[in-house]
Write a structure and sequence with these properties.
Layout (H helix, E strand, L loop, with lengths): L5 H21 L8 H10 L5 H8 L3 H13 L3 E5 L7 E5 L1 H17 L1 H5 L3 H21 L1
Antiparallel strand pairs: 1-2
Helix pairs in contact: 1-5, 2-5
Amino acid sequence: MLNEILVFRLRRIRDVLTHAFRKSSTEGRGLRAGEFSILALIEANPDISQVELAAIGGFDQTILVGVIDDLEARKWVVRQQNKEDRRRRVLQITKQGRAALADLLAKALANEQVARDALTAAEMQAFQASLDKIFRALMRSV
């Protein structure tokens, strides 16, 4: 019965990969769940606000504040006033944050290698395109 449920299949893969990533890459570093993806989104979207970050990343805003506090304490991210709208605060990644992100990215890719090797390059491209298509459809329905 559960094999008919899409989220069940996705969660099994996510759980295995997340557990392995935490064990090999974040344990002992005190990283919180989501810090890698949040850091990557800030890098990809300079001057993003916390509200925008929560929306594009699907993060709860109250939890996001604590994660940003942690990233800021590590000196990986800074909060700054927006130059055009002083009421708005934006996030920027620091040099130390870029170095940490590069390290985490390398570890994340290594962590996924077995999963990536299970598919051909064409299958991986089709899989990623399908996931993106599903996500866009879900976002339109919300």
